[in-house]
Amino acid sequence: MQAILAPTTCGSCGSVLVWRNDLLFCEDAQCPAQISKQIEHFAKTLKIKGLGPKTIEKLALSSIHEIYSLDYDLAAIALSSKKLVDKLVAEIEHSKKATLNQLLPAFSIPLVGKTATEKLSTTVGNIAEITQDKCHDAGLGTKTTESLMGWLEDEWLFGRVGKLPFSFEFEQKAPQQEAHGTVCISGKLKSFPTKNAATAALCLHGYDVKSSVTKDVTILVNESGVESAKTKKARDSGITIVTNLLNFLGEETNGNIA
Ligand SMILES: [Zn+2]
């Protein structure tokens, strides 16, 4: 039996390695091996084709910023092909359209991947709006929040990330326009003074209202408890029957009913 000793220093920069979850890490921010891994991850995440490890090495890129300040002639010499550089430049240009949804996971921020980014996109519109509270509201854990807030301070507030050619805006989610369903009201209402008032409230909540139980009706409102012909028809067709419209709309607003 021979003991295998784990290395204690980074093979690339000589820094003392640190154990994190059974894996050894070099924590030196200037470590060339780490920087090229970060650039590689960035290019991969933003789907910049042709910017793999070999190209990164040939172009001697030492930061993400250098991707966006590539010197055409020097790159053509480094890659010994203008055609390759043309393709790469087009890919880089295209990557500038990336939203923060794609961009944030590309920065190799510990614990901040696609999942954390998607969560965050529900509480903020752009990078400048990210705060500890917003991270908490988005459901990010303490460690993830700490990691992100630390990165923001170093790289966004006091660093050069803001100089990168991106909007730093999260994707604008289209407001929910699709109809929730079609409602038919049967009999007298109790939770609304009139059918017109109920219809207006339903429309405001994104429902269509029909006067009879047509094929597209998905919800029947029956607050009177009278088993009308409409109610019977609805019940037979498996349509949801609501007995208190006000509560129904209230619950829906609170997100209890999807
Ligand atoms: Zn290192």
Word description of this protein:
With 258 residues, the protein is α/β, with parallel strands linked by helices. It is built from twelve helices and six strands. A hairpin with a 2-residue loop joins β1 and β2. Bound molecules: zinc ion. Zinc ion (ZN) binds next to α1.
Largest sheet: 4 strands, parallel
**Distinct ligands:** zinc ion
What share of the residues lie within helices? Answer: 40-55%
- Count of DSSP helices? 12
- Structural category: alpha/beta
Widest beta sheet: strand line-up: 4-3-5-6
**Overall number of strands:** 6
Shape: elongated
Strand proportion: 5-15%
Element order: H for helix, E for strand: EEHHHHHHHHHEHEEHEH
The N- to C-terminal Cα distance equals 61 Å
Whole-number mean pLDDT: 90
- Which residue ranges are poorly predicted, with pLDDT under 50 across at least 5 consecutive positions? none
The value of Rg in angstroms is 28 Å
Give a summary of the structure in a few sentences.
By secondary structure, the chain is α/β, with parallel strands linked by helices. The protein contains twelve helices and six strands. The strands form two sheets. A four-stranded parallel β-sheet has the order 4-3-5-6, sandwiched between helices. A two-stranded antiparallel sheet has the order 1-2.
How are the SSEs ordered, and which strands pair?
Layout: E1 17-20, E2 23-26, H1 32-45, H2 53-58, H3 64-67, H4 72-78, H5 82-95, H6 100-103, H7 114-120, H8 132-137, H9 142-157, E3 181-186, H10 195-204, E4 207-210, E5 219-222, H11 229-236, E6 240-242, H12 245-253
Parallel strand pairs: 3-4, 3-5, 5-6
Antiparallel strand pairs: 1-2
Helix pairs in contact: 4-5
Bound molecules: zinc ion.
Zinc ion (ZN) binds at residues 10, 12-13, 15, 26, 28, 31, 33-34.
